């Protein structure tokens, strides 16, 4: 017989999204520090008198008590750790945070803990909420997300010839996973152009800890170039068109 204690456990979690279920319930997608991605149901959370409702909104870091269920975990207690109020009060920040969580959701499965990924997402939301340049915050997140998930692109050498990249405009191959020099473009004629300045930023994000990045500036042109290129690369990896970049464009 399974004891009550072993069926109930505590987690620290980020609320990724939710959907309505039945007359008063919600099904939550959570990313937890201890167990990675988890699906849970919050019973009666849509009732006016529910004490859990305000703790279970997207873009919220929460402490939860969960009980093991047959198909879904059951939320029995919820307490907000951080609600990222600035994100929720600013439409553009909301769109940017939604993009962060969409990438987390699309690239992960219920496959156990990944504390590096949890901390990266939490730190990214904290930086957006704290007013740091969104261009720096989002591109740093994208680059390190790819690294953690095993999609780290090769940016130092041509992925076709192996030659060291020269200080000139290059190409980026999603299929080959990195930079293609102009002399090797036949290796992937569909590779996308990337300016040397944009490539320098990608390399900088890839090799640098956050304290070295946070005080840098990024021009609007480079920010836009990186946004379009990385979105195309992530879409290629997912084989799925992301929803939030369009929302972010309309808000911007």
Strand order of the largest sheet: 1-2-3-5-4
Q: Level of helix content?
A: 25-40%
Quickly name the level 1 CATH class of the largest domain.
Mainly Alpha
Order of helices and strands: HEEEEEHHHHEEEHHHH
The CATH topology of the largest domain comes to de novo design (two linked rop proteins)
CATH architect. name of the largest domain? Up-down Bundle
Characterize the main sheet: 5 strands, mixed, barrel
- Total helix count? 9
- Shape field: elongated
CATH superfamily heading of the largest domain: Recombination protein O, C-terminal domain
What is the arithmetic mean of pLDDT?
93
Distance between the termini: 56 Å
What percent strand? Answer: 15-25%
Radius of gyration: 20 Å
Number of strands: 8
